[in-house]
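Appendix B, record 7
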Amino acid sequence: MSVDADRSQLEWERRAGRPAAAASFAAGLLPFISFFVLASSISSPGEGRAGLLTAADESSTAFVAVAALTALGFLLLPVSVGYLFRVTRARRPETPGIALPLLVAAAVGTAVILVVEQVLLLDVAGDFVAGESTTEEVADDLVAASAVDTAQLVRFALSVALGAAVLLVALNAMRAGLLSRFVGIIGIAVGVFIAIPILGGATLIQLFWLVALGMLFLGRWPGGGRGPAWDRVEAVPWPTAAARMEADRAARVDKAQRLAYGDSSDEGASAGGESEPPGDGPEPRPASRKRRRGR
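Structure tokens (predicted):
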């Protein structure tokens, strides 16, 4: 890239960094907010699908709110991770281009299917509560007869695609020096947990990673600041902790040496000027005396 192109890229990154950071913070916090909304709305959830359907019918507003908040979090994910993709691609052109459209399509699809799944679940819950029997077998039959299971399968497929996109972006951002090794590995783990939602999707790890991205986008990274790759449009390895300590030590030593042996400026010109060199002309002959001749 040319100098003008590099400058334009860095200016765009500074402008887009703030909204990307806000999206990153929100995408990390919204799942926690939705969890607390649901937990505060359901007093004593029952067991199995029968308990789920009963709770969904009793707290339908909370279920809709949870679906909306979670869907919004997924919609904000491409803003945050998509920004990281563009920054990474500028420094590492070999980053797979499929990662961005895969990220956007999977995130939007997941948000839509979450709302659809919740609407279907509430419809089944209404039929279940209105029925004569509220046993677990009846709940299983009603869910099997609906499209809830199909929606869940579609959501799982979209989660795999979304997790793969996040993993690709995090891996290449780490290789470009935009993420430290620790944050890069956490991002790869987030992609795996999104694709395979074990441990509830590891919401806490996802929150940490997205908040870390937001801090990086704002340029407020502790411990010596962001890696040098953020200040130039090229892949530069993120310095290790030992390298940072050595650089700090060298800077302190250099500062101390300059204070002790710094160059002093000359204080004015010297008082006496230099005498001009003698001219190059021939030296004058001494005047000769005329001899008097005696008479």
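Remarks on this record: Residues 3-231 form one domain. Residues 3-41 form the longest helix (39 residues).
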